[in-house]
Amino acid sequence: MVDFAITKPDMMVSVREVFGIETDLRVPAFSTRDDHVPEIDHAYRFNPEVTLAILAGFAQDRRTMIQGMHGTGKSTHIEQVAARLNWPCVRVNLDGHLSRLDLVGKDTIVIRDGKQVTEFQEGIVPWSLQRPVALIFDEYDAGRPDVMFVIQRILERDGKFTLLDQNKVIHPHSAFRLFATSNTVGLGNLSGLYHGTQTLNHAQIDRWNIVATLNYLPPEEEAAIVLSRVPGKDSENGRKLINQMVTMAGLTRKGFAAGDLSTLMSPRTVITWAENCEIFNNPALAFRLSFLNKCDDFERPIIAEYYQRCFNEELEGSWLVHTGAAQ
């Protein structure tokens, strides 16, 4: 069992001072950090509306879901709010391998006084419920049905959780908080972009008190983040290059929205591209290795056109001959 130094928030912080949002709101926080508190990323840019939604989750114990396209920083947004509140955080990815037993717990064989005995090992849900922890379910709409019904139990107003095998009812800790991130808000894989996502029933979604949407940042803010991650580009030419990269990413997002492309460049991809530029010292090569090689062959001429618009040069490589884009 992990013992937390402080079991409940013991101070109040100003949202204006800590997050730079113009409001008089003050939220509870912990005065000390422990190993479960995420590290502070000083370069992170907070979306005001989403930040207020997350802060409501922490301050008022509201079940809060953040939805949006991949790479927008949904989980990171929650973690960075928690980091500044010194609130312990546990992040669980609801991939297809996570089972009901992983969440609830199971009997395991352990050695006690030299003898094998059967002992119940708590899963992540009962462990978190009893502690001052913000539990984040990542990729919420990718969870298996049996897993989702386990989660549904703690979405109720009182949040009590019953361990049937142990004949035990767990009451949530006063500082337990629940968050989730999703790409589709339970609507399933309508766009064809998020394979493996499930269509969730309305009763499941309706139990979330707050649902906020996190979109991509304005170009100038996205460029600032990329520059903070790749400080080697902090020069006149480097900043110009990053602006061109962000513009290129914006074109792929517009192309995706229009149905011309089946994939797009997330901010994460732009950062990877900039990092690879430092390795290869060749933006075109770094672009191919960071994004282009993930794309459908038939869409590459469109992407090459976007690249020519942004960089005023043609992409070169064997794929041009293969697709006929060089003709």
From TrEMBL:
Residues 7-37 form the Cobaltochelatase subunit CobS N-terminal domain. Coiled coil: none annotated. Residues 65-188 form the ATPase dynein-related AAA domain. Pfam families: AAA_5, CobS_N. Gene3D superfamilies: P-loop containing nucleotide triphosphate hydrolases. This is AAA family ATPase.
